[in-house]
Design brief:
Length: about 80
């Protein structure tokens, strides 16, 4: 399947056909993860497990970066 980008305001968008959305169980409220390997664009729905993992990773990075400040605030 070949698609072209559509102008949406100052941006470009890709229209995904209904059968593909239904196959992947994606609707307008589904959070999507977008990645690239430098040549391809990969779009996939974010699963609850993946979302929990992302939050856990972000929390760890924040705690590592601000450990001293958080310890001072805890006193």
């Amino acid at each position: 399947m070949r698609k072209t980008l559509t102008t949406i305001g100052n941006s470009l968008g890709l229209i995904i056909d209904r059968p593909i959305l239904e196959l992947l169980h994606i609707d307008k409220d589904t959070p999507l993860e977008i990645e690239t390997d430098g040549k391809s664009l990969i779009i996939r729905p974010v699963t609850p497990e993946a979302r929990k993992s992302q939050v856990r990773d972000a929390t760890k990075r924040m705690m590592d970066a601000h450990d001293e400040t958080l310890r001072k605030l805890a006193k």
